[in-house]
Amino acid sequence: MLIQTGIPSAEDILTVTPSEERFAKGPVAIAECFQKIPCNPCMMACAKKAIRVEPDINQTPRVDFDVCNGCGVCLTRCPGLAIFIVDKTYSDTEALIKLPFEFLPLPKEGQLACGLNRAGEEMGWFPVVKVIPGSKTNKTCTICLAVPKDLAMEVRNIRAGGYQDGR
Ligand code: SF4
Ligand code: SF4
């Protein structure tokens, strides 16, 4: 399925999803990287060694959810835009998700952005809490989006442009 559509299955996603007990402790990285390719910038970027590509560079990454603190450094280094940070402790009703984003225009903080699922389907309009620009050497931006908690593992992108003024 993934090979034909580029969209991971629900079973694929379950293999990289932390427990609700772990979600309750704060932000955590979700590495939605399912193809065996020679790649490991995520592992090299993590100072805590919480993400590992082992025993060789062709394996898919594994996040140690007990070690990861959700700092988001790996998210900006992944060339596949495959890493997301999910924080279900953001508020009583919303989760904060951090998404890698490489399109222009960028949204502005306080605007609403149209959230998309992994298939590119619209999931609703959600507040942009923060936009973290890329660095000189790595231009991947991070979009911080507040979404209802039940969509924390569904929204994985925003539609570029067409942003609305905030709530
Ligand atoms: S979010 Fe931070 S601590 Fe967690 S795997 Fe990525 S770089 Fe490591
Ligand atoms: S950097 Fe991204 S694409 Fe490469 S192994 Fe890590 S998660 Fe997969």
UniProtKB/TrEMBL annotation:
<protein>
    <submittedName>
        <fullName>4Fe-4S binding protein</fullName>
    </submittedName>
</protein>
<keyword id="KW-0411">Iron-sulfur</keyword>
<dbReference type="GO" id="GO:0046872">
    <property type="term" value="F:metal ion binding"/>
</dbReference>
<keyword id="KW-0479">Metal-binding</keyword>
<feature type="domain" description="4Fe-4S ferredoxin-type">
    <location>
        <begin position="59"/>
        <end position="88"/>
    </location>
</feature>
<dbReference type="InterPro" id="IPR017900">
    <property type="entry name" value="4Fe4S_Fe_S_CS"/>
</dbReference>
<dbReference type="GO" id="GO:0051536">
    <property type="term" value="F:iron-sulfur cluster binding"/>
</dbReference>
<keyword id="KW-0408">Iron</keyword>
<dbReference type="Pfam" id="PF12838">
    <property type="entry name" value="Fer4_7"/>
</dbReference>
<dbReference type="InterPro" id="IPR017896">
    <property type="entry name" value="4Fe4S_Fe-S-bd"/>
</dbReference>
